[in-house]
């Protein structure tokens, strides 16, 4: 009887422990979900409309506003520690100050730390049977980092079938301010021809073709497969004049930036950039007049590419 009584005590303690551990697990997940959603909400405002440099204060403010939209353990959250800065995508350096000169692996980020502890969000988490173990409460916390950057890859359908060599981007894009270079005579971004020449040309992506019908399909549907920086694409030659009637105008499109645009060759992708198509004419001239544009928002894709005016949606880095 004594042995059974002692065994029952052990069994009850294990049952109590499992109940509290289950509760801790649920609350910890709720905290992580709250941190994740808050960080993503803030990161979505790092590049507001018509801005090409991170708006740190706006992102931090929006993240702060999002904290109270979450409940954890039936308690509406009231506070969190929110930090902005540059996140090293390699994971080597962690979150770095907003004042640094970002390197190729650094992307703007919002970090959110939420805890239930003394003076934070209702205090520590209460344990139902903690007194059996000598602890009535436990501190819990969660941290999330959400980032936004320029794409290192694009999904099927994202790209218009034009390509531009990096030399052209360097001529018309200011990599210091991440904005188009301005023509002093007009006060607007430079206008230039992007059709079948040294400044750019048509790409058929993975297929080696210059068929008008094939390229018209690509104009409508975009790249048929996922493309990453480093992938090769075909640069077409001898495109028919009839194709130019299919090119839309007064639109922003995303194109591949390649090492060169030599017709009839494969060239590796070095980035993805945004242009504004102004006007198009066929005939012997075959002209597509474009300007660089910035703040082109994608609906998916991962960050990690050079900034040529396009941005990925926020995603969790940690």
In oligomeric terms, what are we looking at? Answer: single chain
* SS field, number of helical segments: 4
| SS strand fraction | 25-35%
Distance between the termini: 53 Å
| Overall residue-averaged pLDDT value | 87
Write the layout of secondary structure elements.
Elements: H1 2-43, H2 56-67, E1 71-72, E2 75-76, E3 81-88, E4 95-96, E5 106-116, E6 125-126, E7 137-138, E8 140-147, E9 150-151, E10 153-154, E11 159-165, H3 166-172, E12 173-174, E13 179-180, E14 182-183, E15 188-189, E16 192-193, E17 201-205, H4 212-221, E18 227-228, E19 232-235, E20 251-258, E21 266-281, E22 287-292, E23 296-297, E24 303-305, E25 310-311, E26 315-316
Parallel strand pairs: 11-20, 23-25
Antiparallel strand pairs: 1-2, 3-4, 3-5, 5-8, 6-7, 8-26, 9-24, 10-18, 11-17, 12-13, 14-15, 16-22, 17-19, 19-21, 20-21, 21-22
Helix pairs in contact: 1-2
Overview of this protein structure:
There is one protein chain. 22% of the residues lie in helices and 34% in strands. The longest helix is centred in the N-terminal third of the chain and has 42 residues, at 2-43. It has 318 residues and is of the alpha+beta class. The protein has 2 domains: 2-148, no CATH class; 153-316, no CATH class. It starts with a helix and ends with a strand. The strands form 9 sheets. It has a 5-stranded antiparallel sheet. A 5-stranded mixed barrel has the order 11-17-19-21-20.
